[in-house]
Structure formats: structure tokens, C-alpha cells
Design brief:
Number of helices: 13
Number of strands: 12
Largest sheet: 8 strands, parallel, barrel
Oligomer: single chain
Strand content: 5-15%
């Protein structure tokens, strides 16, 4: 199992990069940078590429709606170049709240667009001339929809690699099936190891049956909050604001993927209550309504023995890359947590 860290949405680039440099020396394998509606992920990853030498640099994730497929491919090729082949492209649909609310782009056809974006990116990296005629993207633009002057083009530069790894953040059954079919990796959120197979097992199996063997095994990339010690029980509360935001506030009733996931995990009544409180503006009560059980089983928080047991559960659930977010009071404590985690990894 590879170990990495996921950086927070907000915060100073320089402070975060200094922490990653120290963690790289401690042996982490991956660093993931998110993108929602804060600073963009690409700026920070370019800075990380210059300051690190070994870790893989991952977007966790870039929304497919906010950049054209060709720009996603160009950006990935550029980051792969400046990092000497250390970049991995994490893609996802995000959700209507971000895509429509912040970018003003319709949130439509997530499955079809995801498949086409992946196909176009891989064609760009192979330096093929783009003659792509999908349902959602046509390259070049047909004459009846443009000036008629567009012509087929190929990437000018020669990429470091023509197969940059692509992982997809997916939660719904069809999205997960598509991911298991076409992607190098899968980035689920709020991963509950003991219930993951019940929620996603059939979708993963269906996608794997259509998977090109040349892709190799699916890299299951999972995030988890981390705090190791006999006196870290209070850190569970640190996770609850994020869970309340996603379950309660990331979408309207009936259109919230994270609420749906909590429901599929068996927390339907709790998810309804969190959503009701959050959407009515009672955010503190929504946070208080998040149960310790949900936090504990989607995190790595507790004494060394408990964390070791949780690591075994993650491994048995098929996790191959674990991205942790240390619940630490400072960089020294965060470094210690990661070092202790590496020592606890199952052999």
C-alpha cells in the first residue's frame, strides 16, 4: 500500500510545500492537491514539482467541466514534463453546486463526458491529430457549428509519457463501473472499508469485466483523516465540519452525492437530519449531528493498535494508495503521525 498526503483546499502554498518536502524525506509516495473553489490545483502542483524530487503529484480532483478536454491533456502533459514524469491526473465531475454555482457551466451528462474526456486526453498524449466525433465533444468543431476554418491539430510538444495515469473520483454505481472500465485509478470519498463492497462491489466487478488488460490493476486511492495516540479522541470532532458540509450542504435535497453515500452506508436517517439542519442554516447543529461511528470508520484516529487494525481493514477492502490528512496541531505532529503510520503498514 502506498502512502501519501492530501493537502487542504485553503492555506498557504509555501507552508504546505515545506511540509510536503519534509514528508517526502519521511518516505511518502504521493501528494494530492484538491480543487474546488479556492486557489487552482495546478499552480500549487507546479510549485511542488520544483520543490520535490520523488513523490507522485496527483490532482484530487480536477472537475471535467471547467477545462476543455484538450486543455486538461495539455496541463497534464506540462505538469508531467516539469516533474520529470511524476504527475497523475485525477478527474471528477465535482457537483452542481461548484460547476453551476461557481463556474456557470451546466452540470450535464457526467458519464458520457467523463468517458470522452479520458479518450481525448489519451489521444492528445499520443500526439494524434484530433479527429474526435463524440456526443459531447467534436474536434475539430464541425463547420456548421463554427467558422469552418477549424482543422485537425496535434500537440506540438512530445510528452514525457504518452500514458499519464488517470484516476477518477466516482461514487454512484454507473460512475464507479465506468471508472473500473477505463481508468488507471479510482478516488472514492469517505471510504468505509467494511461497507465498501456492499456499496460498490457489483459496480467494480461489472467495470472490471470490460477493462482493457493493458491498463493493469485498478489503483484504489482512498483518503482518510489521521491521528495516532492514546489521547486523540477529540480529533474525531475535527472531521465533523467537513462531513456535515458535504452530506448536508453540497447539493440540494435529492441531488447530493455525499448524502446518497451516507445513506448507502446505513446512515440514512442521520444524513437526512444533517441535511435538514445544514440547509436551514443551523450548521453548528448539523455538525453536532454527525455520529462518531461514521467519523471513526472513515478515518484513522486512535491508539496505534486501533490504527493498525483499520489499516488491515483498508488493505482487505482493496485499497492500494492511502492519502491521509493529519489532524495535527502543527507540522511536527503531522510528520510524526505519518512516520508512525508507515511503521504500522501491513507487510
Amino acid at each position: 500500500m502506498r502512502i501519501g498526503v492530501q493537502l487542504a483546499y485553503a492555506g498557504g502554498f509555501k507552508e504546505a510545500v515545506a511540509q510536503v518536502v519534509a514528508l517526502e524525506r519521511a518516505g511518502i509516495d504521493v501528494v494530492s492537491v484538491a480543487e474546488a473553489y479556492s486557489f487552482d490545483a495546478i499552480s500549487q502542483l507546479g510549485y511542488l514539482a520544483a520543490k520535490t524530487s520523488r513523490v507522485e503529484l496527483l490532482t484530487g480532483v480536477l472537475p471535467i467541466y471547467t477545462r476543455t478536454p484538450a486543455l486538461l491533456a495539455m496541463t497534464a502533459a506540462g505538469l508531467d514534463y516539469v516533474s520529470d514524469g511524476r504527475f497523475a491526473l485525477g478527474l471528477g465531475t465535482s457537483g452542481p453546486q461548484v460547476v453551476e454555482g461557481f463556474h456557470g457551466v451546466p452540470f450535464d451528462a457526467p458519464l458520457g463526458r467523463t468517458r470522452e474526456v479520458v479518450e481525448i486526453c489519451r489521444a492528445v498524449w499520443r500526439r494524434e491529430r484530433l479527429n474526435y466525433h463524440g456526443k459531447h465533444y467534436q474536434l475539430p468543431l464541425p463547420a456548421d457549428r463554427g467558422t469552418g476554418l477549424g482543422k485537425s491539430l496535434q500537440l506540438i510538444n512530445h510528452p514525457v509519457r504518452e500514458r499519464i495515469p488517470i484516476s477518477i473520483a466516482a461514487l454512484g454505481p454507473k460512475n464507479v463501473e465506468l471508472t473500473a472500465e477505463i481508468a488507471d485509478g479510482w478516488q472514492p470519498v469517505f471510504f468505509y472499508p467494511e461497507r465498501a463492497n456492499d456499496v460498490w462491489g457489483e459496480s467494480l466487478k461489472a467495470g472490471a469485466a470490460k477493462r482493457d488488460p493493458a491498463l493493469g490493476p485498478l489503483d484504489v486511492i482512498v483518503g482518510a483523516s489521521l491521528a495516532i495516540g492514546d489521547d486523540v479522541e477529540d480529533r474525531l470532532a475535527w472531521v465533523k465540519p467537513q462531513l456535515a458540509l458535504y452530506i448536508g450542504g453540497m447539493g440540494a435535497k435529492g441531488r447530493n452525492f455525499y448524502h446518497n453515500l451516507a445513506t448507502r452506508y446505513g446512515f440514512g436517517d442521520v444524513a437526512d437530519r444533517i441535511q435538514e439542519l445544514y440547509l436551514s442554516g443551523r450548521k453548528t447543529e448539523a455538525i453536532d449531528a454527525v455520529p462518531d461511528e461514521l467519523v471513526r470508520n472513515t478515518s484513522l484516529v486512535g491508539p496505534r493498535g486501533l490504527v493498525a487494525e483499520r489499516l488491515t481493514a483498508y488493505a482487505e477492502a482493496g485499497v492500494t494508495t492511502l492519502l491521509v490528512g493529519p489532524l495535527a496541531t502543527g507540522p511536527d505532529e503531522a510528520l510524526r503521525y505519518v512516520e508512525e503510520l508507515r511503521a504500522l503498514l501491513p507487510s
